[in-house]
Amino acid sequence: MSGHALHTAWGIHGLGVHLPDRRVSNADIAGRYGVEPAWIERMTGITHRLYAEPGQTTSDLALAAAERALADAGLSPLDIDVIFLATSTPDQLAVATACRVQHRLGADRAWATDIGGACAGFLNALKLARDVLTASHPDGRALVIGAETFSKFQNPLDRSTGVLFADGAGAAVVGPATAGQGMLCSVQGTDGALADIVGIRAGGSALPASEATVTQGGHYLHMNGKAVAAYFHDIFPRIVERLTELSGLSLDQVDLVIPHQANPRMLRTLGAELGISAEQLVVTADTLGNTGAASIPMALHAARAQGRLTPHKTVLHAAVGAGMSWAGSVQHWL
């Protein structure tokens, strides 16, 4: 490529989702957490969520979403150069779930790897896809997937996570765009001092699997809800402010705000405080729950299906994940 300008404009050419079949209402889970179904809806805004079947894996959900995204883009798996899969709930340790998806998809040319960042993982993967395509594949395509099976890590005694988190997968095909279109800017950051307020404690090198870690529930998802909410309220406005600065757009010039789908009641309250109108804000967690890294591509797909996301719309994304890590981006929809 010596002597040639790098291609730097990239956007989303296709979307796909996979929604599990198992619908779980508040009434289905309220008893185990010692609350009324109405309490769950009042505190979170969620009425029901979707769970994978016991035999389904994260790679199963990711593969289905990826196939639909490729079909939406009119591409073959062999057209893909890079696969990034963002997940907090991989099929297993040590083997990237993306590798299993790459093989099962038949994307034999693609480099495939997993991306961290929890709920911010999809935006991390989207930025990395743009950077890798710019550096190495000037006419290439990337498949960016977010997939989670949180139901397999739910502590039946912990309502702070049990009423919020759910399963699903979303995928996007990233390819060349004309200058000024597609992904315009992005921001990322980490506050590792708060790494212990949400996550899965056991199963890694710090706490290898043992009878004690299993007995103590160390392999379940845990969350300090108050600390996570406080951090979200602090960092979310700063992400929005920084993105408007970088993009040169005022908030009222943004057509849609599609955040990671945390507590939907909190999203609406904070959005209103920031001056984000109900017409701008896209919330899908009412009926899907918080699907972590999958939530932004799933919400993009829902907004498009509703006719809210159309060509040339300006979309702002913000996400806050375990770590604590955060990310944001602005794109002009192709």
What does this structure look like?
The protein is α/β, with parallel strands linked by helices and 334 residues long. It folds into 2 domains: 10-179, Thiolase/Chalcone synthase (Peroxisomal Thiolase, Chain A, domain 1, 3-Layer(aba) Sandwich), CATH 3.40.47.10; 183-332, Peroxisomal Thiolase, Chain A, domain 1, CATH 3.40.47.10. It is built from 11 helices and 13 strands. It has helices at 26-33, 37-44, 58-73, 97-105, 121-136, 159-162, 211-215, 225-247, 264-274, 285-288, 295-305; strands spanning 10-18, 22-25, 48-51, 82-86, 111-115, 142-149, 167-176, 182-190, 198-200, 221-223, 256-257, 314-321, 325-332. The strands form 4 sheets. A 5-stranded mixed β-sheet has the order 1-7-6-4-5, sandwiched between helices. Strands 8-13-12-11 form a 4-stranded mixed β-sheet, with helices on both faces. It has a two-stranded antiparallel ribbon with strand order 2-3. Strand 4 (82-86), helix 4 and strand 5 (111-115) form a beta-alpha-beta unit. Helix 1 (26-33) crosses helix 2.
Classify the beta-strand content into a percent band: 15-25%
Which homologous superfamily in CATH is the superfamily of the largest domain?
Thiolase/Chalcone synthase
Strand order of the largest sheet: 1-7-6-4-5
Quaternary state of this entry equals single chain
Shape: globular
Q: Show unreliable segments.
A: none
Total domains: 2
Q: What is the CATH architecture descriptor of the largest domain?
A: 3-Layer(aba) Sandwich
Biggest sheet layout:
5 strands, mixed
> What would you report as the Rg, rounded to the nearest angstrom?
19 Å
